[in-house]
From TrEMBL:
This is Putative ethanolamine ammonia-lyase small subunit. It catalyses: ethanolamine = acetaldehyde + NH4(+). It is an enzyme of class 4 (lyase). Residues 22-37 have a biased composition (Acidic residues). Adenosylcob(III)alamin binds at V180, E201. It comes from Natronococcus occultus SP4. May catalyze the deamination of various vicinal amino-alcohols to oxo compounds.Would allow this organism to utilize ethanolamine as the sole source of nitrogen and carbon in the presence of external vitamin B12. Transmembrane segments: none annotated. The keyword Protein transport does not apply. Keywords: Bacterial microcompartment, Cobalamin, Cobalt, Lyase.
Amino acid sequence: MASDANSDADGPEPTADRDAEIETEVGDDDDQDGPDEDALRRIADRTPTRLGVGRSGPRPTTESLLAFRADHAVARDAVHSRVDDELLAELELVELRTRVEDADQYLARPDLGRELDAESRERLREECEPEPEVQLIVSDGLSSTAVEANVPELLPILRDGLADRGISVGSPVFVEFGRVDVMDAIGEELGADCCVILIGERPGLGSAESLSAYLVYGPERGTATSKKSVVSNVHDGGLPPVEAGAELVELIEDTLAAEASGIDLREDDREFRES
């Protein structure tokens, strides 16, 4: 009982305080004048979350319903559309494909997105440099929009940054209908020290441009997700591609030096440059 008393005396009630702060900021439900519209607008400007959409009786307003449907369409398009062929040619990526046949199968069979088809495995061996220090992979994943929005800026930063540090990079590839773990299969086939995959994230409503970068040291099939490092939310409204590129180059350098990634890459390993 003493510990409970001390807890009550020493700390505030965060939920009550937070509720009071919100009521002060935007007004409560009993406020006849309604919420503070300026305050609500300021809060909404800080987040893509759908706030203050209003309603007509128990139903959403026409404006908010149409906005919802438009945002949902953006998310669906990101999943079902394909990356532009001209962009892939411009980025000089070796084009590969997983065992997935179409977008519907991609959603239903994640396992097929983790392995290249037979033709792509042959092309990988014929056209890609073996045993690179770093193998760069681009994949549409769950959002081709994310690839088109971020990779043209991010990929050159990675190439140049790694070259400046004397780190060899293999022939970058693009994998259609890829899952994160396809990097394990590609890295194992090529004998790469480290693999990095830039892949489209699952789109949200009205936010389809978010990209993730996963990194693994010593890739081989069946590598646990916990052994992979990740830099996520890469897009202009989150972590800008320029900043993500710089962060990834440092992460790759640390990974190669420590010969570890994911939970095996400790903070002490990442501080060797400062010691």
